[in-house]
Predict the 3D structure of the following.
Amino acid sequence: MAKNSTGQNCRHGRGRGNRRNLLGGVLAGLLERVWTTATYFILPIMVIEDLSLFPAVKRATEIVKKNLLLVAVTEIGVSGGVGLVGFIRIVIAVGIGVGIFAAFSALGSTAAIIGAGAAVLLAGTLIALVSAFSSYVTTAYHT
């Protein structure tokens, strides 16, 4: 358990042992998604229509109310599609890394060390590319 500045035990942050609030986590995630989606509407309205914050929020609310189903379906679709494709590509990258390691391991212990390094570098590079692709797709959608 963490100690505060006076040396007393205290609980803070996310590390609260085994007591996790599942409903709170789901609601926090949902609130984060709604806020993020709202900012993708509010900020462009502020720039394009030269409005301050509160009129931009009102305008964004009008747009979303008129297109709520479209906004919700596309947000879920893009997130789900990018998540699924990213997951599949990461599984493939890890599989390639394991294959490289297994091939080098068959050659001996020194080759296994080299194979482990090569596997980590290649799989890590592929995972970084998947992450960049996912970020690109979601940014392009929201733009």
Q: What stands out?
A: The helical segments are 22-48, 53-66, 68-105, 109-142. Strands lie at 2-3, 9-10. The longest strand covers residues 2-3.
